[in-house]
Amino acid sequence: GAGVSQTPSNKVTEKGKYVELRCDPISGHTALYWYRQSLGQGPEFLIYFQGTGAADDSGLPNDRFFAVRPEGSVSTLKIQRTERGDSAVYLCASSLFQRNTGELFFGEGSRLTVL
Amino acid sequence: GENVEQHPSTLSVQEGDSAVIKCTYSDSASNYFPWYKQELGKRPQLIIDIRSNVGEKKDQRIAVTLNKTAKHFSLHITETQPEDSAVYFCAAPGAAGNKLTFGGGTRVLVKP
Predict the structure, then answer these.
(1) Which residues of A touch B102 (CB under 8 A)?
(2) Distance CA A59, CA B107 (A)
(3) Interface subset of A 72-101, CB within 8 angstroms of B
(4) Neighbours of A20 (CB within 10 A)
(5) Radius of gyration (Cα) for chain B, nearest Å?
(6) Looking at the complex, does the CB of residue A70 fall below 8 Å from at least one CB of chain B?
(7) What confidence tens digit (pLDDT) does each residue in A32-73 have?
(8) Are A42 and B45 inside 8 Å of each other by CB?
């Protein structure tokens, strides 16, 4: 595709519910990243995929967060038992380069609001 | 892990003046330093980057300088224009290189 696509663009949910956020990276980009951005702050790393495998998931805040990339392209970030503190913009980025040696192309983000 | 500090958090300049944003990093193994620009409600976009084997890089009105000894790097914007108004983020990868750690951002306002 022309760029990184994220859906939904906005998601409002109630505390305790389960949500899935989808990322469709640029075709051919093997590296895929999830970041979380709270208002007025920089993006915070969550997880990095190289191909199908999670190369680094050290940024996932707890076991309520999980991400998959089963075919090495589309990725889904899954959040169980959502809490109000999970409210943020979830950014996905893809890159041709491994290990952060080149440009990350970000999507527009999925804004999650937990009521 | 890597720790990136960015200053100032806000910067207001008159159109035509220069703007300078500074970042420090903690992991001496970091070897790649990008700068991203994020306009209100938009995605972050790379504007310039520098690798650790050079000390300065320029691209039209923007430049980045790197001091590896002091572990800091700076973004310089000359002849600022209203369209330069945005939030700017610096970042560094740390030793493992698996994740970019971003600074807290600098909100730049260019006053006409």
Answers:
(1) 35, 42-44
(2) 25
(3) 91, 99-101
(4) 15
(5) 13
(6) no
(7) 999 999 999 999 999 999 989 998 999 999 999 999 999 999
(8) no
